[in-house]
Design a protein that fits this description.
The chain has about 190 residues and is mainly α. It contains four helices and no strands. Helix 1 runs antiparallel to helix 3. It is elongated and about 105 Å long.
């Protein structure tokens, strides 16, 4: 007994499939229209937080650069050693978008390198504070140690901040934190 040849079937989706797909799309679009405002508000908050983090990182780098300038002014014998590190700190400030020429403030506001007995280097607080709040230690070794401590503190802060910001800024923070950790090592162990 011969089998009849199958009739040619249509290729592509059938009408029922198409209608079901359109209905599902309409339902999903209708359900998410209210959530779109919440999503855009969340993105705006994240962008704002990222910009605040970027601005703080720029200020911190500029303040650290000013501290390098203060140490170099107080201990000119360290200028050759500190110059390349200071240049990197300036490039970090520029990468974060710091205002001013070269990403660093002018070195002139700190003419007093003499330490006062009432201030201690451990009271420096957050790295975003003014660099001249703590006098430069009189001994070059102590001045290097204070710079290393600021570099370490700032590297730790940036490492923590990199977790809460979006991709490119997180990578920049992590990279600059690693550079700061290397600076801290060079300031303390590199001269031995």
């Amino acid at each position: 007994m011969p089998f009849p040849l199958p009739t040619r079937s249509r290729s592509g989706p059938r009408r029922r499939s198409l209608l079901a797909g359109l209905a599902g799309t309409a339902l999903l679009t209708g359900c998410t229209s209210g959530d779109g405002d919440a999503v855009s508000a969340t993105r705006a908050r994240q962008a704002s937080a990222a910009e605040r983090t970027r601005a703080r990182a720029a200020r911190d780098s500029a303040a650290l650069g000013a501290r390098y300038d203060e140490v170099i002014a107080a201990h000119p014998s360290l200028a050759r050693r500190l110059g390349p590190l200071r240049a990197e700190v300036a490039s970090h400030a520029k990468a974060f978008g710091s205002g001013g020429p070269g990403g660093s403030p002018s070195p002139s506001p700190s003419p007093s390198p003499s330490p006062s007995p009432s201030s201690s280097p451990s009271s420096s607080g957050a790295p975003s504070g003014a660099a001249s709040a703590v006098p430069v230690p009189a001994a070059p070794k102590d001045a290097l140690a204070s710079l290393a401590a600021r570099e370490r503190e700032l590297a730790d802060t940036r490492t923590v901040q990199s977790v809460d910001v979006p991709g490119e800024l997180a990578r920049l923070l992590a990279s600059v934190a690693a550079s700061g950790a290397a600076h801290a090592y060079l300031l303390t162990e590199g001269g031995k």
